[in-house]
Amino acid sequence: MQSAGEPIPWSFTDSPGVLMWMWATEHFVVRIQGTEVSVESESLDGLPGGRRLVRSYHWNLSDRVRLQQGVPRLLIEGNSSTFDQAENLIREHIGKCYDRSLGYRRFAGSHTFTFQLSTGENVDVSSLIGTQCTVTVLMAGGARRTVVGDLEVIGYRWLVTSADGSFEIVPEHVVAITNRSAIAEQARAVVHIETYSGVGRMYREDPRAGCTGRVGFMQGTVDHAGAGRCPLHEVGIPDHLLN
Predict the structure, then answer these.
(1) How far out from the chain centre does Cα 181 lie?
(2) pTM of the model
């Protein structure tokens, strides 16, 4: 579950047909504008007359550090169907655009480190920062490349660093990211995905007749560490992955 962060100190104005929320600092100014429509007494949608209805919310973030022709420079904008959606997008872009030393990340919460992958999944990578991760990236033409290294987040991009060098990755091109070892990832590719835990030679099942493993330290798992090849769980796995 995402952490929203501290409440944004909005300045609110209400004028006919338009609701405006604004937050201005020395570094940026953000606005959410709600477009209001009137609801007639005999409206087709069945809403009672006189009820206030906002059809959409337009939001934008403008930079005051580098002005454009003397006015704040527009960085990003968009439209949302609800105020909460607009506010969360603002939290995300504030967290990713501005250095943490400026103190705005307390408003961004986990949105700073949440990214949408190529699969459409939204992933909070805050717990993975500084750990060795395995990142699968979708390349041009549909090919996939796996990169292993320590993860760092720089704005809207990831930096994965290993002994082979540093790789800058666009999260929207990522198929999957885990902090399992490369060996565990190889094993996962050749075993039954629903049972392999991703840790060593541990599987999410209870020991049963014919299994060479023993009860794992996690409930509902069986661990094969130090045992011979299991004829139930490890059929077809290369020998070097069992060491």
Answers:
(1) 21
(2) 0.66
